[in-house]
Please model this.
Amino acid sequence: LYPNFLFLFVSISLMMSCSGSLKLEIHTDDKTPGKWSVPLGDDVFRRFLSGGGGSEKAVFGEGSLFSPFLFGKYFDPSDAFPLWEFEAEVLLASLRSLGGQCRVDWSQTDLAYVLKFDIPVVGKNNVQVYVDVNGKVMEISGQWNNNKKAAANGDWRSGRWWEHGYVRRLELPCDADAKNSEAFLSNNDDYSFLEIRIPKINSKNKF
Model:
């Protein structure tokens, strides 16, 4: 779907940060240019979730970064969303009022854009982050179910991807320094916690 994009592929490395989190190593690679080419519709998603079990609800349920209803109304998570154009306090107000239902937060400082969220530990759960350098789009995805048949072309992200994994695609702000992004992963029994920091271009000149 995006054959001319150059991606930064972020995979889990074994380097430990000072806080005990795993620092994610950045690579340049994209072997699946046709990924997310199958859109997820509202009716399809509702049928899928109603027939699913605890794993599906944990990954796509209310308050998850990967829920199509995270922003109040249905939004296909494979479509890029301009996250930092909205304040988390406003967009997630209804979820936060329920208490304990929100597992995502984002913010910005003079130096960087920050995204923090929980990922349910289910199935394979190999989280990956891509940044499209030209189009300024970030993709956060992972495969949580490897028990079903892969897509016809052999890659789960090019078919009915929601049956195998999850994704959230985000538009990056125009001053985001995608090449120098960093991500850190912490693990516990039920959830993994991922923090992504995207520096602002020429942020050093702001002081």
